[in-house]
Write the structure tokens for this entry.
Amino acid sequence: MSSPPLTSEQALALAPDSSVAAAGQKLATERSWQGLGRDGRASWGECKGSALYQVRIDLSDLATKCTCPSRKFPCKHAVGLLLLTASERLPQGTPPTWVEEWLSKRSATAERKAKREAAGEGAPPADPEAKAKRSAERHERVRKGLEALSLWMEDLVRNGFAGLEAETALWKTQAARLVDAQAPGLAAQVQQLAALPGSGPDWPRRLLERLGRLALVTEAWRKLDQLPPLLAADLLSLVGIPLREEEVVAQGEHLEDTWAVVGQELEDTERVRAQRTYLLGTSTGRTALVLQFAAGPGARFAESFLPGTAFAAELVYWPSAAPQRAMVRERKGEIHPWPKALPSLTLDGLCQRFAEELSRQPFRERTAAMLGQMVPIVDSRRRWWLRDTTGAALRLGPCDRWRLLALSGGRPLDVFGEWDGEEFRPLSARVEGRPHPLGGGQP
């Protein structure tokens, strides 16, 4: 039997919440099932409950399907089968018809999508002139909105930052104006500024820096037609004018590699679930950020990504002067554990990468990287750092710091995270080939 594509911890991490995880653990026993089996493509079984539910898992991407009425994905029955799959207790067998039909349907859907993309279906607009007119009208609304933003920022700096701690409505009002100007990306950035006043002794410096970045955007928009195409694409994305998937496939960089899942964050609100997943090319050393959104709590994401696993795939990067966001266009193999070493950077290499990216894409706020052989330390002023084998160090950002210290035990380990030029915010650490999440924790 081939090695399992995941561990029990990773199977539980796929559960949408703790209650589903707990219920799934109770179902991870053979007496709750009948007809259990697996082969190289899938695992399956029928779970005995108030009814007999047919549950199946596609081992190529760990997608699941269950006939129960639950609105959470994966449901408790699927989590139970995931745990049984991870335990290697499933007998080899031939998939029943209902599993074969599901796999065939998934394959056919993927083939139709690939054919549409190859043929460029949906790319030509139904009415090119109407589309061009709508685009011009939106660009003009954005231009007026950014001109108003520029004047607002000038007044803010001229009047000084004193008393901004109490001005809670100031930011919401300006963000709402940008939404009206159809610049939602910048509206979100302005809304984030509300958390800076009073947040620390150096908050005026940090606020001025963020305003400076917004000023750079307003100035760049005035010269949008003069920018190189890829930098213009970055600016449009930053403002909040997205590309359609078929446009990304046609214009973006395509890259094949075996991709290791090295970091993941989930934001779960009442309306939208957002998941940020970082992939690292095991051969190329390239990083890729996959963003996924799902409507409502417990809603299903289109794809599953498990930290600590890897898969061969073709990725497509969003057009950019310094590509970072990507989507998985085609998987070319099953998910499998990745205990081997991964490409990493030194502190000097990290600074060089960030400087090079900023030279090509001046709007870039952070870069992601795997740092090799780092040791977390605390100095006499209770400040946290990551130190390399040469003695060089950088400031440690928000994370579960005590867990990182415990994982290290004073020994070097690899840490993956985001660097903004001042702090490195770890997302995971690798110990003996296994990733350990470090999200949350103290600032």
